[in-house]
Amino acid sequence: MRICGLQKTTLLDYPGKVACTVFLGGCNFRCPFCQNSEILSAASPAAYTEEELFAFLQKRRGILEGVCVSGGEPLLHEEAEELLKKIKALGYCVKVDTNGSFPARLKKLCAAGLVDFVAMDIKNSPAKYAQTCGATVELAAVRESAAFLLEGGVDYEFRTTVADELHTEEDMEEIGAWLAGAKRFYLQNFRDAETVLCPGLHPCSEEKLQAFRAVLRRTIPEAKIRGE
How do strand 93-98 and strand 117-121 relate by DSSP bridges? Predict the structure, then answer.
C-alpha cells in the first residue's frame, strides 16, 4: 500500500468538515474519465511514507476534523484497516471513497467503527457498468455495497461522474430504479485534465445535466448536481 498523494486541506471532500484527503495507489477499475490515472497501479511511486503522513496528522489535530481516504481504490488494500485504526486513534472522523467492489471489507470496517462516512461511486447503469469501468466487474459485489449503504447504518452518499459520451437519460432511469430512496446522490460533471486516463471525453451540457437530475428525482428526491 503506497500513499501516493495528500491534499492537506479541503472544504469539499468531507461534507460539513474541514479535512485532508489521502490518496492510496492502486485500483481494480480503469474508468476512462478517471483523473488520478497516475496512481492506478499498485506500484505507483509513493509521495509520502506512513510516518510522514502521521506526523502531519498529529500536527494538524485541532485544526482538521476529518480525513478522507481515497485512491485509486482504498479498499483494494487489506492494510487499509490498520491505517484507519491509526487515523481514528488520533481523534479524526474518517470518510472512505470507494467503487463498492469490496463489500465484505466495507462492512467490516464500518462494523468496527473505523468509517464515519462513505462516498460510493456509481459508474453507470448496471448494463453499462463494465464498459464504463474499463474492467471486468463483479456487479453483484457493487450491488451488495450499495444495498448495505441504503440500509443506513453509516452515513453515505452516492455519486456519478457523467461524461457526454458515456451517459444517457436511460442510464439515469436505471440508476434511479436501482438506488431508489437514497439519502444523497450527486451528479458530477466530467472535467478534463492532463491526468485523465482516456483523452477525448467531454462534459455534459447544463441542459443534459438538468435532464439527468430530473430523471433521478423521480425515485431519488435528494438527487443534486455537485456544486449547485
Answer: parallel
Biggest CA–CA distance in the chain, Å, is 49
Give Cβ neighbours of residue 16 (< 8 Å, ≥ 6 apart).
none
Q: Which amino acid is at 89?
A: A
- Determine the Cα angle at 169 with ends 72 and 40, to 5°: 10
Read off the pLDDT of residues 16-57 as tens digits, 9 standing for 90 and up: 999 999 999 999 999 999 998 899 987 889 999 999 999 999
* Bond before 72 cis per omega within 30 degrees: yes
Query: What letter represents residue 210's amino acid?
Result: Q
Cα→Cα distances 60→5, 36, 48, 54, 55, Å: 17, 25, 16, 10, 9
CA–CA separation, 81 and 115 (whole Å)? 10
Look up cell 445535466; give the residue.
Answer: 209
Q: Count Cβ atoms below 10 Å from residue 219 Cβ, excluding itself.
A: 18
β-sheet bridge partners, residue 208: none
Q: How far apart are CA 122 and CA 97, in angstroms?
A: 11
Task: Tell me if 80 sits within 8 A of 1, measured CB to CB.
Answer: yes
What DSSP letter does each residue of 16-32 carry, written as one string?
Answer: TS-EEEEEE---S---T
- Grid cell locating 14: 468531507
Q: Kindly tell me the sign of the dihedral angle through the C-alpha atoms of 107, 219, 126, 199.
A: negative
Whether pTM > 0.90 for this model: the answer is: yes
| pLDDT tens digits for range 134-158 | 999 999 999 999 999 999 999 999 9
